[in-house]
Amino acid sequence: MKPVRHPDAPAPGQLLGAHYGECFGCGGLQPHGLHLQARAGEGVSITAEFTVQPAHQGAPGLAHGGVLATALDETLGSLNWLLRTIAVTGRLETDFVRPVPVGTTLHLEAEVTAVAGRKIYSRATGRVGGPDGPVAVRAEALFIEVKVDHFVQHGREEEIQAAMNDPDQVRRARAFEVNP
Ligand SMILES: CCCCC/C=C\C/C=C\C/C=C\C/C=C\CCCC(=O)SCCNC(=O)CCNC(=O)[C@H](O)C(C)(C)COP(=O)(O)OP(=O)(O)OC[C@H]1O[C@@H](n2cnc3c(N)ncnc32)[C@H](O)[C@@H]1OP(=O)(O)O
């Protein structure tokens, strides 16, 4: 089925903010995290930027492939905001097309291509040298919709308690649960 943008989705151009402050991909509280910033796009799409830091190296002066996969995963995960659905990555297939040096800003875009029950199919690209620059990485993913209980059940007790005691975090989690 064609994906449907939720009527209460953030407006195109709106900065989405972190879904969790401690998130390695988007959180502000992780010193070596990616601090990826995502914006709502048109339809069910997202754009995002991430600048490769020295802490993200694999080979000398180059981004680690796993970090680039994280950037793709996080951008794809941000599509949840537009569907107002909580979903986790089930499958992530990544192509590494060109090496990405430290200091490079990766310009990412992602879109949902189809939804089938709890399964959300999506794809993303990361470009270098600007939003219209050459593709350095791309991915196809399958996200699976889950209830907030998924996190409460599986997350370590101390972080879950802290999240449940943080009104902002509870509000962010609830924002997804209104999905019919
Ligand atoms: C107040 C407390 C607040 C706490 C919450 C805080 C914040 C919440 C807000 C937002 C956060 C949301 C997400 C985070 C966003 C971004 C971060 C980036 C994303 C990630 O980094 S997230 C971490 C990595 N991710 C995982 O940690 C998943 C581990 N995993 C599992 O937890 C299970 O595996 C699960 C749940 C995925 C499925 O389990 P399940 O039992 O529910 O469902 P089941 O297995 O039946 O699959 C249903 C249908 O999907 C098909 N299917 C499943 N997996 C497939 C695969 N790999 N390939 C092909 N098909 C697959 C089946 O074949 C079936 O298909 P069919 O229906 O056609 O038969």
Automatic annotation (TrEMBL):
Coiled-coil ranges (or none): none
Compartments where located: Cell projection, Ruffle membrane; Cytoplasm; Membrane
InterPro entries: HotDog_dom_sf, THEM4/THEM5_acyl-CoA_thioest, Thioestr_dom
Cellular-component GO terms for this entry: cytoplasm; membrane
Swiss-Prot/TrEMBL GO biological process terms: fatty acid metabolic process
Family: Belongs to the THEM4/THEM5 thioesterase family.
The protein, known as: Acyl-coenzyme A thioesterase THEM4
Organism for this UniProt entry: Streptomyces spiralis
